[in-house]
Here is the input.
Amino acid sequence: MAELSRNEHIKDASNYLRGTLAEGLAEEITGAIVEDDQQLVKFHGMYLQDDRDLRGERTRKKLEKAFAFMLRVRISGGVLTTKQWRALDGIARVYGNGTMRATTRQTIQLHGVIKSNLKATMRAIDEQLLNTIAACGDVNRNVMCNPNPYQSKAHAVALELTRGISDHLEPQTGAYREIWLDGEKILGGEQPDVVEPIYGKTYLPRKFKIVVAVPPSNDVDIFAHDLGFIAILDDNSDVIGWNVTVGGGMGMTHGEPDTYPRTADVMGLCQTRDAIAIAEAVVTVQRDWGDRTSRKHARLKYTIEDNGLDEFRAEVEKRAGVKLAVPKPFEFTSLGDRYGWTEAEDGKSNLTLYVESGRIKDTAGGAGMLTGLRKIAEIHKGDMRRTSRRRNAPRSRRWSRNTI
Amino acid sequence: MSPIPKTAPFADDEIEILNQVVGPATPIQRAWLAGFLAGLDAQAGDAANFTPQPAAPPQPAEPLTILYATESGNSEKLAGDVAKAARKMGLKPSLVDMADLEIGSLAGVKRLIVIAATWGEGEPPGRAIRAYKELMSDAAPRLEGTQFGVLALGDTAYVEFCAIGKALDERLAALGAKRVVDRVDCDLDFADPAAGWIGGALKVLAPPADPNAKVIAVDFGGKASAAPNLDVVEAEVSETINLNSSRSNKETYHLELTFDGATLPYKPGDALDLYAENDPAYVDALLKAAGLSSDTALRSDFIKSRDVTTLSLKTVENYANATGQKYVKELLEAGEAKAWIVGRQLIDLIEQFPIAIDAEKLRALTRPLSPRAYSIASSRSEVGEEAHLLISAVRYETHGRARKGVASNYAAGLKKGTRVRVKLKPNKHFTLPASDRDIIMVGPGTGVAPFRAFVQERRATEAKGRNWLFFGDRTFTHDFLYQLEWQDALKDGALARMDVAFSRDTPEKVYVQNRIWDKRRDLIEWLDGGANFYVCGDMNAMAKDVRATLVRAYADVKSLSPEAAEQAVATLERDRRYQQDVY
Here is the structure.
């Protein structure tokens, strides 16, 4: 049997994502954390980075690299209240580099947070009932939902499912609260099925991405994801079930023929009440069947390719205790965002804004997108929604908001 | 026993004879001989009256107490000069650092010379504060029967020029002592006026000479060869690095100097006096304002050797007197000049109140350019034949004009290979303890310089004592001076602990004193275990707060009253375990 990949050992030894993070944070003289912890910290929603522009001068100036953390805030379905928006804006200004970045997973990234400010930043995020857990790492990432501004009724159901899946698949380890929020330590031996009933101690072999879409809009690019739920609507625009898609992913490694892009298969139809059980079963099958020896061959698409869709479906149905029905037809007619004002079926208007490269910042000359959106968040009474965009599309992201 | 060395200016057989006599001689015989020979020599020019006299038998010399309050070491050095001269005049001097003064011991002192520096905005040197307060309080003894004189050191750039010397002068008189020499207030170029005052004072205080005695003290051996070289020497800038990141709004320069001759024998804690030059652009602007642009000799003189930036009330008065400038006179008469000079320089005076002035008068408005002392940031045990300095470029804007600190900007502009003039400035009040003692160092900003020297020294000498450093600056990422070196020191054990405070990284500013408070339990434990405590850096904004924090820490950790906690810190100071080097 092939050797497990290095990350598997790190996860295994991490005591549910703790590693030596607590000790590393207390180490004031370096802005970095040790290498193994750099892998673990991704599960907590952050990456350690350094300012490349400054690399050349640092050593001569007797300074270590200009380390800082990028934090990715988990925003299920991409919907924020204006209060949450204003808070993130404030956090970016006080602890970050004064910018935010809208990502293709409907999340918001904060950049330039130095280690000594991490805990304060995480507390401020927590105060907004937001978190960063599993925004990166070998776990279910932020669950996306297209911000369909037309069928607002179906969108509400889709958003509910999105949040339900997201909550259900959130890692349960106490490490997050313990490390970042000074939560109480859980003493004694922890049982894998108690701490992480879904993931176990080594989590997933690789990242895992889920989306929920309401046709005819497919701006979330459902066939490029590990797992997807396509809303099936009746003539009243009520949701009557979900087509489940599995095994999509556009990534590949040049020069490695056993890696390739793959569009997802439609595996079957499920009821709304069974959707979360199906999601859990897909995740646990991938947990047990996924390739943990090669990270380049570890996504769900290879598991399905290697085992066959039928066998995979059978295992999912067995674990979920649900029989999938024959998929219903659906039609996607749009992939992109609709910029500008649109009117929904309930008569409310929405404005979709374009954010170049996703960078929400002020210009050197003064106020820009950052301050502009903050002003909107100060007077606006609706919510603020992130859209997404197909993977590998040009690096443009869109911002949508729902006005009254 | 051969006390006369072979190098003595006698023939070999003469040296042998001399040694036969001097070798076994008793101390009294030797003193007699010394006095006799000296007297012989003194009278050699007056052959007519020459009668060999037996020198006076050793008699008890009259005591002279020399009390000094010193911060940068100048008062202390002058006190040493007084003692040396006093000894020659038959006095028995005793030097008393005001830091050690028991004020009760002043009662009964017959002759007292006080040399007092004024520091900052009219304050006593840090170590002298306690005794100064006691002397000013009801606890001071009456001093009838004491003859005294005060020499004051200060800086006319400060409004409260020589305030401490003045206050002591008045206080001693008020306590009943008799002022036998008038006080002299010295500016930065104190050498000549101070020497003059010392000569005059000793003449008054010395006992009348015994007409029959011609004992003249002889300075055997002259200067001890072990004395450090305190002359101005040239050095080459072999490295210059701005340690702040290019994203920082500060510039702090690490300079490495190498010497032509022997490396100055500096010790960790010592400083180097840097002889800076003025910014030529500033001098040109000044000369232009004064209408003296064509005077190249004056320009060169100004750049190299005059303080052409400082503007004191005295300068304004001198300008008014020298030129009769109407509006300056009005400013002075209205009593507004004192406020007007705040944040201004000489160039503002000349530009805003122009009047024809010649080179000589303009020059008379300036003082000699004094060197600026910087704590040495290296230990010879580690860097060998080099000395490192850490200098922060002082830049700010006042009254619509960009201002630059003269010495710091000179240092900032130095290129590799440039030659500079420096002088060793020993600091015996900032020294490492025995190698097995722990030390705690508090050095934010450039205050960390001597601690780099301490840590290097303790690493090189494998000192067993633990070293704990508190450092702070504006931002972690861009202003962490010597970060990689501290990381290494923590790894190799040269530093046991390090705590940092970066004031601009968080919404609420955090300073080293906050970190000291956070770590107070461990800190007091170290101090109880005999650790020394060092503070270097800004006096007003930092050092005072650090001391106050330490007092609070004692009160909190040991459940002491505020008075008892203050006493605990005062005891550290008197035991030389609390040392500071502030500016």
Q: What stands out?
A: The first strand of chain A starts at residue 46 and ends at 50. Confidence is low (pLDDT under 50) at residues 390-404 of chain A. The CA atoms of residues 233 and 240 of chain A lie 6 Å apart. Chain A touches chain B through 21 residues (CB under 8 Å).
